[in-house]
Amino acid sequence: MEKVKEKVEKREDLVDKFVTKFFDNLWVNSAYLGMVSKNLDTAFEVRKKWNKNMETVLSLLELPNQKMQQKILHNVNTLLTEWRFEQEELKYRLEKIESDIEELKAKASEQSNHIAEEKTNKHKKN
Amino acid sequence: MIGTPLLEKIKGYKRPEVSKTTVVYSENKLRILKVEPENKVYKTPVLMIPAMINRYYVLDLSANNSLAKALSEQGFTVYKVDWGEATDEDRWDSFEDVFTGKLKRIVTKVTRDAGTKPSVLGYCMGGTMSLIYSSCFTDDIKNLIVLTAPIDFSKAGVMSLWTKKEYLDPYKWVSAIGNLPSDFVQNGFVSLKPAKFMRKWETVWKRQDDSRFMDNFLTLESWVNDNVPFPGGIWQDYITWLYQENRLFNDTLIIGKYKASLKNLKVSLLTIVAKDDHIVPIEAAEPLHELAGSPDKTIKYFDGGHVGIISSPKLFPQLSSCIKDWLAERD
Fold first, then answer.
1. Interatomic CA distance for residues A107 and A83, integer angstroms
2. How far, CA to CA in Å, does B303 sit from each of B11, B281, B317?
3. Pick from A12, A19, A92: CB nearest B194
4. Looking at chain A, which residue has its C-alpha nearest residue B176?
């Protein structure tokens, strides 16, 4: 009879299991999550107030409003990007139309040459 | 490197560039990088879209684990999207802009440069974004590969619990801090598996003289720690619409004037799921195969975790050969 090898758990595995279980339980604990969320909310409220005070200080010093500056920069970036892209698109399309026209012209001249040749051949025969 | 102290190795490490690239388009901080194959075999190029929270080079990580290199060696032209590093003013970017603006321009530029519609490969959040894009603009791309991307966000494990409405108000956060700091995202991922984080450093200590192991470890570690801030405006909509309201899965996602319904998908679709993924569990990723309207769709399950699937020397060859074969059949 062959002996079935049993997996012997090392101390490290047990430590890992313990740590994993501890954090798994912590992460799904609604009381813990609620507490973290409340703390973060409070921190963000403080940060918002700080931001507002900073804006007031900047305006008192007659320095530009940072939020407005960011918004303007964002709008400039967006508009510039769109304008550049549209310009390149337009250029691409115009080039394509031009090459299509050239192709059509070449075809038309080829046809007219062919017709003219046929006419001269007919004349010669007559 | 053998014999040098561990800290010196870590400090002195600099990830070498893998594929030779040229910039074919740039706007603000975004760039499209092109990897030209030595011998072009296939006419359809591959456009790689990574997540916005990590650096783009995850798909071109090292000489042995680079999807971009593997595909270009097989004769595919590869384009990589580098989202760049968001600064304060990018906090005003919106989720809608990503699709109707940035991605639309990226796909158009790649199509113009290659002369034909590309196959898109989206990784993680980049996969979800590629799906939303191809649901809105159904004729823009040829094939779509979605690599470990969340679809049913209600089953995204601890992440979906942390982002529940009662615990997190993203709009409040963004109005206070603007862009989401990279440390925040980084710590969030580490907290998912704290035991693994501890054990990782123990293994490194034990195997510090194994130069091959150390090289792989440092390459991956340099990427893992190289996070970028998440543009606030995009993050708040991403969390609310997808995690909290699960709009993509519930078929209620509207992007501008488009309805991003997975039923709209027409492209050939390959869904890749990692069996041990703790960031995007199987239950969160596999519903795509059922929901997608694509007539030609395949789902593949691979061993490994979210990052292991593309970074492990053991698992990577299976993944890259599966992608190569699938793309070659649909060129």
1. 36
2. 32, 12, 12
3. A19
4. A48
Chain A stretch 12-51, residues whose beta carbon is closer than 8 A to a beta carbon of chain B: 12, 15-17, 19-20, 23, 27-28, 33-34, 36-37, 40-41, 44-45, 47-48, 51
Residues of A whose CB is below 8 A from B108: 85, 89
**Does any CB of chain A come closer than 8 Å to the CB of residue B176?**
yes
Is the minimum CB–CB distance between B167 and chain A shorter than 8 Å? yes
Top pLDDT among A124 and A74 is at A74
Residue B311 to residue B10: CA distance in whole angstroms? 18
Instruction: Judge whether B95 and B234 are in contact, CB under 8 Å.
Output: yes
Can you give the pTM of this predicted structure?
0.88
Structure tokens at A99: 């090459």
A19 vs B contacts (CB less than 8 Å): 194-195, 198
For residue B219, give the 3-state DSSP assignment: helix
Please report the ipTM that was assigned to this predicted complex: 0.79
Least confident of A103-117, B200-214, B277-291, B301-315: B200-214
Cα-based angle B292, B121, B104 (whole degrees, multiple of 5): 85
Are B168 and A37 in contact by the 8 Å Cβ rule? The answer is yes
